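User: Design a sequence. Structure:
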């Protein structure tokens, strides 16, 4: 059996005294290592052996501290502040003395599941059975001692979360023994992979795209393009030279034909925060020269009549006048995708400001002024 995708982000179940402070920092650090070609080095230190794990009432692969809050898609909305707080899972550790496991659970993150509410990030939970004496022995292996100036590969290992359950239904999180480089030991994976999977299920974690947005093909977050010049940017090729540049279409990102995705802008966007030490004149100069990306949250979707869609796409193609200078930040805007949304090629959507400067942006970011006819057609949206 091949190894599963090892996703327990940032080695949260490994035996280590190091504390990960930032997903972004770790990812950036790994990227620097990969780009520079340098290898990480393990330094001397104390043993990283884990303490006996806490025994709890049951397995919980949906605990918020297990997947590090990693969104599957960048359109994932912020968690609701009034949502009930699910307790964190206990720290992973060694198998306590007297704990006799009868079931192994393997939790793999970075999956998705869809239901009547929409698209969720998900954890895949596998139930396994096998030789638990052999498994407990493998898990009891001590961590390798750090070696001075030890060279290690710069890849970031992501491993599944493991839980053991006894006959009474009590459970504990397992700590993976690690090598001198902080990677899980292959011998432990070999024992886990020898177990037989008896059941598999996907459990939801965080709502990524609501049902309304999913059915309309809308993203949960949108943004007003930077005004002008985007068509002159030399974008790097997505594939090697000589290969067709096709971008795979993903769920919930390309509006369905006729669907207009509506977004509401949070107040305060487009305003520069006060600069320490700057007087009013300098602050205004900085405000005037700043470039803002205005973001909005999904607030609904409507179906456009064919005539209105034709007006909107015509405006984005340059049928009207170029956009006038305007600094008023829109409080609402809308986006509509290409008419050929069923193809494998995804282009940037056409964007229209429903108030404020009332501009129409083409897929390249060029801005045109909304015509009186289009304004009347969009009235009430």
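Assistant: Done.
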């Amino acid at each position: 059996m091949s190894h599963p995708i090892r996703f327990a982000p940032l080695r949260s179940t490994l035996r280590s005294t190091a504390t990960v402070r930032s997903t972004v920092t770790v990812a950036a650090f790994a990227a620097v290592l990969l780009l520079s070609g340098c290898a990480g080095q393990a330094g001397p230190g104390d043993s990283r052996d884990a303490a006996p794990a806490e025994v709890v009432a049951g397995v919980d692969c949906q605990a918020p501290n297990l997947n590090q809050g990693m969104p599957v898609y960048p359109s994932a909305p912020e968690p609701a502040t009034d949502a009930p707080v699910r307790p964190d899972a206990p720290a992973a550790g060694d198998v306590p003395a007297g704990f006799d496991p009868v079931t192994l659970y393997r939790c793999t993150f970075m999956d998705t599941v869809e239901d009547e509410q929409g698209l969720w990030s998900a954890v895949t939970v596998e139930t396994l059975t096998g030789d638990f004496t052999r498994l407990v022995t493998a898990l009891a292996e001590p961590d390798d001692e750090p070696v001075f100036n030890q060279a290690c590969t710069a890849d970031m290992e992501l491993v599944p979360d493991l839980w053991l359950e006894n006959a009474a239904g009590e459970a504990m999180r397992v700590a993976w023994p690690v090598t001198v480089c902080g990677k899980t030991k292959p011998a432990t994976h070999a024992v886990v992979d020898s177990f037989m999977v008896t059941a598999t299920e996907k459990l939801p974690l965080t709502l990524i795209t609501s049902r309304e947005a999913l059915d309309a093909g809308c993203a949960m977050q949108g943004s007003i393009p930077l005004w002008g010049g985007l068509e002159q940017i030399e974008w790097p090729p997505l594939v090697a030279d000589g290969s067709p540049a096709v971008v795979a279409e993903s769920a919930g990102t390309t509006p369905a034909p006729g669907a207009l995705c509506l977004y509401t802008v949070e107040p305060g966007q487009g305003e520069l925060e006060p600069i320490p030490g700057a007087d009013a004149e300098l602050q205004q100069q900085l405000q005037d020269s700043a470039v803002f990306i205005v973001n909005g949250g999904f607030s609904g979707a409507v179906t456009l009549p064919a005539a209105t869609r034709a007006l909107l796409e015509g405006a984005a193609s340059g049928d009207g006048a170029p956009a006038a200078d305007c600094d008023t930040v829109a409080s609402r805007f809308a986006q509509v995708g290409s008419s050929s949304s069923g193809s494998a090629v995804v282009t940037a959507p056409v964007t229209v400001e429903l108030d404020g400067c009332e501009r129409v942006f083409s897929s390249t970011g060029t801005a045109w002024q909304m015509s009186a006819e289009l304004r009347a057609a969009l009235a009430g949206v």
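Residues 1-48, 71-76, 228-252, 338-346 have pLDDT under 50 and may be disordered. The helical segments are 23-36, 132-139, 186-193, 211-216, 280-289, 306-316, 372-377.
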